[in-house]
């Protein structure tokens, strides 16, 4: 068994970008793991560590060397390997040169196809210590860093200046230079509590040494848990609950190495501001965790985390309270000033804000959204006045001071200002809900007006940007069109809205006045939305072949699409499903292969074989019984009824030659297959089922 040691790599830097820390350590682990695999170095568990000043990996049970490799190269056949005088032939000489070997090093390999000259060589595996520096350097070079920097007089580049490198294999330092720094066994403790070097005796001692001596919690995950627990304890001391959002928790964990909670207080008068304003101010500007009571109402406290265990914590607390005060005062000023002008009065000013060069201003977009919203409301038999009013006011809050300071409050502030202006509550809610869902898996609009406005706004954006030719490619999607398309899919399906998607896309495109090919863009946009539908449904557990089976019938309603999928998923569990899927595939292939052959509606009197007459009778019976089921969209029952065709279909293919030499009979039989295919295609093309 190969001898193994633990490997420890640590890169010490200036403070790393907090929002990139998780990405950097994940990519580093992946890169090193991939490099070890390519080098043939198996290993045990990898533990990743990340703090504001370090990225580190502890790799258990790494072999000290690659496994030896026995290589075998087969040369020319023995009967062609030598000249008449016994000297090596040209083929043999060339083989010897390619192997850098002599004739005496070759062996004869006997196989059932004859005898061959063969060269075998045992290649000794390289020592791990010679391979690891390149593996680590390659992983660092491939980290997803948008812009690298240089420091000092060297040429090394990284996201931040590098100050130390540790590279241990067991108890030994690996001789290497990484990013211009010679590797050693020294790490650094906390910048203030233990700035001196700490020597690590062996990789397994790394985490404990940093914790006990260096005042560093090296594990990102453990530091998050610690911060969360300390925040909750601090909030409980004032009978509150810490408002902890995952993104902020990640960011705080990436800002501190030794988290120390600080609970501050602010003037209760600011609680008259909308809660979202206070939360955003504290979270975005200060990285504070707000505190709520048991009912979710804000309390006049916040919790922040210091990266130092101060001898004078009151001074730290007072400093944070002093810093947040003007932030809250600014928010209060914006709130007061914004309400001096009604949203309606801001509508005209949207003419001065360009949405997109070819698509006009935000005012133009607002009018298009209002028209499209009216169309959708009428299709759903909903009241249109609220939709149009909400659409007209939907973008006006973008001109307020508050949204200018906190863009993420768009829509939310629109709701507050609309209510302050005396607008209907449903209109106000819709202004906020137009942006839903905001993230993958986020909530969709809860009100009918909000759902319609969200659809109209997203359809206008999608149709407009697509019509200008700015189709998302790769990772580039500046208008968040993928999110908009997924939002349309989710709202239609989850809210059960019976809307014809192609017709809506056509209506949205018709509102744009610049020159573009309507038919081409319609096709592109339909495919784009259906691709989002595919991803959404596959995430819900739909199988790929089931999706393709339904997609082949091109349902116009996404709600109908989902009903068909459920029916197909149940159908495939039936004992008849496999045989019928195969038969449908055969039918489709025959019809495609003979698409230029004329066919006729089948008549029992024109058929000759018992099997085909029986199949026609069964098909006509199924056709009559299917009609009401299709109208009711009871696709599950419809497919169960069609499952009864298995036996007559199987018998038909066993007993009947479709492509008869008799032209009249051939037309009848192709017509019969067309009838069978058409019955299934009312629901799905089950020939796709695997």
What does this structure look like?
It is an enzyme of class 6 (ligase). Keywords: Aminoacyl-tRNA synthetase, ATP-binding, Cytoplasm, Ligase, Nucleotide-binding, Protein biosynthesis. Its main location: cytoplasm. By secondary structure, this protein is α+β, with helices and mostly antiparallel strands. The protein has five domains: 4-65 and 127-212, Alpha-Beta Plaits, CATH 3.30.70.260; 70-123, no CATH class; 221-338, no CATH class; 344-541, Hypothetical protein af1432 (Orthogonal Bundle), CATH 1.10.3210; 572-688, Isoleucyl-tRNA Synthetase, Domain 1 (Orthogonal Bundle), CATH 1.10.730. Helices cover 48% and strands 15% of the residues. Strands 2-3-1-9-10 form a five-stranded antiparallel beta sheet, with helices on one face. Helix 15 packs across helix 18 and helix 22 (610-631) runs antiparallel to helix 24 (646-655). The chain starts with a strand and ends in a 9-residue tail after the last helix. The model has no long low-confidence stretch (mean pLDDT 93).
The number of E-state strands comes to: 20
Q: Structural class from helices and strands?
A: alpha+beta
Q: In terms of per-residue confidence, which ranges show pLDDT below 50 for 5 or more consecutive residues?
A: none
- Strand arrangement, major sheet: 2-3-1-9-10
Main beta sheet strand tally, sense and closure: 5 strands, antiparallel
State the domain count: 5
What's the N-to-C terminus distance? 45 Å
CATH class of the largest domain: Mainly Alpha
CATH architecture verdict of the largest domain: Orthogonal Bundle
Mean pLDDT: 93
Strand composition percent: 5-15%
The protein's oligomeric status is single chain
Q: What general form does the structure show? A: flat
Protein name: Glycine--tRNA ligase beta subunit
Subcellular location: Cytoplasm
Pfam families: DALR_1 (PF05746), tRNA_synt_2f (PF02092)
Catalytic activity: tRNA(Gly) + glycine + ATP = glycyl-tRNA(Gly) + AMP + diphosphate
